[in-house]
Amino acid sequence: MAQGAAYAGRVPLTVAELDETELIARFAPRLPRGVRTPVGTGDDAAVLRFDRGDAVVTTDVLVEDHHFRRRWSSGADVGWRAAMQNLADVAAMGAVPRSLVVSLVMPPDLPVDWVIDLADGLAQACAPHEVGVVGGDLSAGPSVMVSVTALGELDGVAPVLRSGARAGDQVACAGTLGRAAAGFALLELADSGVVLPDSVKGLVGAFRRPTPPLGAGVDAARSGATAMLDLSDGLLRDAGRVARASGVGIELSSRLLGPEAEALQEAAEIAGIAEMDWVLGGGEDHGLLATFPASAALPAEFRRIGRVRDAVGHAVTIDGEPPSVRVGWDHFSG
Amino acid sequence: MAQGAAYAGRVPLTVAELDETELIARFAPRLPRGVRTPVGTGDDAAVLRFDRGDAVVTTDVLVEDHHFRRRWSSGADVGWRAAMQNLADVAAMGAVPRSLVVSLVMPPDLPVDWVIDLADGLAQACAPHEVGVVGGDLSAGPSVMVSVTALGELDGVAPVLRSGARAGDQVACAGTLGRAAAGFALLELADSGVVLPDSVKGLVGAFRRPTPPLGAGVDAARSGATAMLDLSDGLLRDAGRVARASGVGIELSSRLLGPEAEALQEAAEIAGIAEMDWVLGGGEDHGLLATFPASAALPAEFRRIGRVRDAVGHAVTIDGEPPSVRVGWDHFSG
């Protein structure tokens, strides 16, 4: 009941005080239905119309104290991120996000207000993109867990896989690099008493509410992208995935990545780390990494950051050298 | 590490000893891909081809110590049930189950063997129905949680909703009633030292591995079912949902339900309860409840158990009287 303090003396209603039907009645009406959804929430399943091409489906789970902390992120922040990280996976296939479903597990003392706030975060992430939240399940459990499955449609283009990069292709990214990781590091510092200047608070916002370039995925597919993925575990680690799946090597350019690092300079000084470590190793901005034929004009959202080479030596190199930063995170181990 | 005892002295490998990639490498190859799946697991999303009609989507979560106990159900049992309860929701729309995705949250001390066993249970439930397991996410967390999202396709028929029942319709069910609840009660008795006769062990199996009549959903849709749902919370409670969604009353017949109760008689004597309580209140067999026009011939799997009447008095009655059993369960409250 530690959350009570946030409510200025008022004891918040907890989820244990409502039954499932009552909680759904407060939660479901806040969610958008999306387009081409003949049946929304409230039946055994929702019905979706995919009449423009193949469907894509992906799932990701957020677990309290592993992927977020309630004292750092509001319910709406968690709902936003749960939606966005899945919509980014849809975009990374070259598809248009259409719908998602949500399973929410809650400890009995979770304030109902937090759950309502989560619904609002889901809606804020989805509604502007005409994405519907078309189903869900609620359950009690030991801590908060939000599992989202997102659906999208390919709208007539072929899916862009991780495996299509060819030597000579351009390597490019859309969206931000390292901002979420910087924001996370700043939150840890703030937690230990460091007062953050206002000038770096945008990075904390980038951690709480990443804004993946959702439209860039379709644009990349239309521009002939040969491979693409969602940058969720850091540039080096995710570039390594493309390299291995495609049987190529990826050469990044520190010069081309320079502008990405520059924006993190002040925060890096506060945190006492090299800003390029965040650019190369920081995950969860959920930008897109894509490869394009050498002759292709890149879509507006993409910046060139390197090139695809033959698969010799390290899967990913920077200026021809193996990377030396500590890369990415593994949520699972430890 | 209490699970260690089951391994006869061998210390089982736990999930904390593998990283996510290693665990996925052991888990994913055990899963069926399904049909019409141009892209399976291993990319940002799977790609599915829905060229026969609208898609349906539903999600359900199982939480350790809320929906299952590890000492009562093997990993394969949990995987089986997580799949089946979702496939039943797809069937209850009149759709053909096609694919599912799985989010799995695991405590660090969970044996890897348990996770592999869960994959096998998912495969055993899905493969015979040509259902693919096309994606997933793994994460650490405080206890086991399995969130499944299932997709199906309507194959040219209109979805059968909860809201279409009309006064005069026949009420019918497919699949078993009360067997899972009886099995659960027997497991509780066995846990407190009661030795169960072999003759009732089939009910324990029905709790561990429910076998919903998945094909009956499509058959019902083709036979003109006016309303349908998956019986997950008990006949009375789920019939009440149809009644409220359709604006009708549902009259059940104790004579027509008699044969359902008879199969539970021995177990009911052991447990000291009235077998009809399980038939009316027991959930999780995941049978189907459907209504059909009075003139319709019922599909082979369905038995008539009552009729739809006008919405006067109680939503659901038995032989004209309000039901007196304690109905259903609410996993959420308490």
TrEMBL record, chains A, B:
<feature type="domain" description="PurM-like N-terminal">
    <location>
        <begin position="42"/>
        <end position="153"/>
    </location>
</feature>
<feature type="binding site">
    <location>
        <position position="230"/>
    </location>
    <ligand>
        <name>Mg(2+) 3</name>
    </ligand>
</feature>
<feature type="binding site">
    <location>
        <position position="89"/>
    </location>
    <ligand>
        <name>Mg(2+) 2</name>
    </ligand>
</feature>
<feature type="binding site">
    <location>
        <position position="233"/>
    </location>
    <ligand>
        <name>Mg(2+) 5</name>
    </ligand>
</feature>
<keyword id="KW-0547">Nucleotide-binding</keyword>
<keyword id="KW-0808">Transferase</keyword>
<dbReference type="GO" id="GO:0000287">
    <property type="term" value="F:magnesium ion binding"/>
</dbReference>
<feature type="binding site">
    <location>
        <begin position="136"/>
        <end position="137"/>
    </location>
    <ligand>
        <name>ATP</name>
    </ligand>
</feature>
<feature type="binding site">
    <location>
        <position position="59"/>
    </location>
    <ligand>
        <name>Mg(2+) 1</name>
    </ligand>
</feature>
<feature type="binding site">
    <location>
        <position position="329"/>
    </location>
    <ligand>
        <name>substrate</name>
    </ligand>
</feature>
<feature type="binding site">
    <location>
        <position position="162"/>
    </location>
    <ligand>
        <name>ATP</name>
    </ligand>
</feature>
<feature type="binding site">
    <location>
        <position position="60"/>
    </location>
    <ligand>
        <name>Mg(2+) 1</name>
    </ligand>
</feature>
<feature type="binding site">
    <location>
        <position position="44"/>
    </location>
    <ligand>
        <name>Mg(2+) 3</name>
    </ligand>
</feature>
<feature type="domain" description="PurM-like C-terminal">
    <location>
        <begin position="166"/>
        <end position="277"/>
    </location>
</feature>
<dbReference type="InterPro" id="IPR036676">
    <property type="entry name" value="PurM-like_C_sf"/>
</dbReference>
<dbReference type="InterPro" id="IPR006283">
    <property type="entry name" value="ThiL-like"/>
</dbReference>
<dbReference type="Pfam" id="PF00586">
    <property type="entry name" value="AIRS"/>
</dbReference>
<feature type="binding site">
    <location>
        <position position="137"/>
    </location>
    <ligand>
        <name>Mg(2+) 1</name>
    </ligand>
</feature>
<feature type="binding site">
    <location>
        <position position="232"/>
    </location>
    <ligand>
        <name>ATP</name>
    </ligand>
</feature>
<feature type="binding site">
    <location>
        <position position="67"/>
    </location>
    <ligand>
        <name>substrate</name>
    </ligand>
</feature>
<keyword id="KW-0067">ATP-binding</keyword>
<dbReference type="GO" id="GO:0009229">
    <property type="term" value="P:thiamine diphosphate biosynthetic process"/>
</dbReference>
<dbReference type="GO" id="GO:0009030">
    <property type="term" value="F:thiamine-phosphate kinase activity"/>
</dbReference>
<keyword id="KW-0460">Magnesium</keyword>
<protein>
    <recommendedName>
        <fullName>Thiamine-monophosphate kinase</fullName>
        <ecNumber>2.7.4.16</ecNumber>
    </recommendedName>
</protein>
<feature type="binding site">
    <location>
        <position position="284"/>
    </location>
    <ligand>
        <name>substrate</name>
    </ligand>
</feature>
<dbReference type="InterPro" id="IPR010918">
    <property type="entry name" value="PurM-like_C_dom"/>
</dbReference>
<feature type="binding site">
    <location>
        <position position="44"/>
    </location>
    <ligand>
        <name>Mg(2+) 4</name>
    </ligand>
</feature>
<feature type="binding site">
    <location>
        <position position="58"/>
    </location>
    <ligand>
        <name>Mg(2+) 4</name>
    </ligand>
</feature>
<comment type="pathway">
    <text>Cofactor biosynthesis; thiamine diphosphate biosynthesis; thiamine diphosphate from thiamine phosphate: step 1/1.</text>
</comment>
<feature type="binding site">
    <location>
        <position position="89"/>
    </location>
    <ligand>
        <name>Mg(2+) 4</name>
    </ligand>
</feature>
<comment type="similarity">
    <text>Belongs to the thiamine-monophosphate kinase family.</text>
</comment>
<dbReference type="InterPro" id="IPR036921">
    <property type="entry name" value="PurM-like_N_sf"/>
</dbReference>
<feature type="binding site">
    <location>
        <position position="89"/>
    </location>
    <ligand>
        <name>Mg(2+) 3</name>
    </ligand>
</feature>
<keyword id="KW-0418">Kinase</keyword>
<keyword id="KW-0479">Metal-binding</keyword>
<dbReference type="Pfam" id="PF02769">
    <property type="entry name" value="AIRS_C"/>
</dbReference>
<keyword id="KW-0784">Thiamine biosynthesis</keyword>
<comment type="function">
    <text>Catalyzes the ATP-dependent phosphorylation of thiamine-monophosphate (TMP) to form thiamine-pyrophosphate (TPP), the active form of vitamin B1.</text>
</comment>
<dbReference type="InterPro" id="IPR016188">
    <property type="entry name" value="PurM-like_N"/>
</dbReference>
<feature type="binding site">
    <location>
        <position position="60"/>
    </location>
    <ligand>
        <name>Mg(2+) 2</name>
    </ligand>
</feature>
<dbReference type="GO" id="GO:0009228">
    <property type="term" value="P:thiamine biosynthetic process"/>
</dbReference>
